[in-house]
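Notebook, p. 212. Picked up where the previous page left off. The plan for this session was modest: take the two constructs that came back from the sequencing core last week, fold each one, and keep the raw output in the notebook itself so nobody has to go hunting through shared drives later. Recording the first one now, exactly as returned: residue sequence, then the structure token string.
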Amino acid sequence: MSEGFLMEVCVDSVESAINAERGGAGRLELCSSLLEGGITPSVGLLHVVKQYVRIPVYCMIRPRGGDFLYTDREVEVMKTDIELIKSHGADGLVLGALTEDGRVDTELCVELLAACRPLPVTFHRAFDMVHDPVVALETLISLGFERVLTSGCDSSALEGLPLIKRLVEQVRGGISERNLQRVLEGSGAQEFHCSARSTKDSTMKFRNPCVNMGASLSAPEYSVKVADVTKIRTLNAIAKNTL
């Protein structure tokens, strides 16, 4: 992008994808179930999103919520998803895997990267769960990952700012309207990742309050989270004025 920065918006619906592009996003991370931190989207979702947006769409490859230590069968699912998603027009992929002691699973990542070629690959926020982020970053660079998603191994990018700055300096080569300027100024990062969502009420007229489709901590049945055009435009303006 000519402004010298790039905003990637994480989306899990066609409406959010369209809103993100309208708001000025330069790239999408497409996934399902943001409530779980994002899992692999359906091929149908990818296919329709690609019909409505022109910006690059990177797809999450994550077979389930929870940790990033995968069984052999889960790896089979990941490799199959990679092939399907590549064949349906993804512009890049987002994935990650760790060993039981919190290190990058180098062997598995090499296999997954080979399956992803020639598409670019981002290592997702599994990075925030590693034992030693400095060592992990060097590993990811040597493996050939294009970028790393991180909140600085903390609850938000603002809290993790000191580590983000250190990691940006090492490479040299979660965001909101309230903290973006401080994060950009303090870290020197040229790309940022956010979901920038607002709650949208369901259009259902009849509602049964006695039934919940998921667990007790799942999303409300009669509202959805959608990327907010106004929030994304605000973040874009902050970045333009900061960088």
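Okay, moving on. Second construct, recorded in the same format:
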Amino acid sequence: VERIVTNKMLSAQADRVMALGEWEERWQEDRTGWHQPQVHKMLENNIEKVLAGRSQVKFFFPLCGKALDMKWLADMGHSIVGVEISEKAIKQFFEENNLSYSEEMVPALPGAKLYKSSARNISLYQCDLYNFSSAIEGQFGGIWDRGSLVAINPRDREKYVALITSLMDKDCRYLLDTLLYNPELYKGPPFFVPDEHVQNLFGKSCDIELLHSIDALTDRQKAWGLDFFIENLHLITPKTN
């Protein structure tokens, strides 16, 4: 019965599509309610679980926006690679954090631009996420997925998971933030991604641990017409067999 309910709920958003241009438009118009003006508490509270004693970890930030989490990790000595479609978001990241940066084309990614911090190990690629691959920057020891899996079009999830798992090195620790609510009341994004769905997407190749489940309902979600809004944090690691 649970599976039937989950499938019914997933189908409520299955055909919802946001074009890349719409995301760029939201940045242009400053309609970026998902951006947090501080380091994300879920990352801060679980950083030890992600680092697992490692230093100088290479982190991947899919759909990075201008997340302050990137500078926070870079200041600890880790290196950051992000992918974002909005040039405005990338430039704001560097400018708002007083970081000087360089701009270059990426021969391996036609149409893409690479923005690199001069003083910190931060490289942000302005391109379509699905054009990115391990051929560009190798694999990663850490991934912070906040507002990425929940933002992509639901029909692209298998493609997304194939990309993300191809970017994970054997010791990778991938922190994934998902959201639970009634998708029949709100069309998204952010989209509804239940735990069983995370299991179906990643379970073949990875171990998944639910670290936290918190009530994240605020006036913002109430304005969407929601009466519950749960944020779940998962730690995903490649199976060792």
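Notes on construct two before I forget. The domain at 1-238 is CATH 3.40.50.150 (Rossmann fold).
Flagging for discussion at group meeting.
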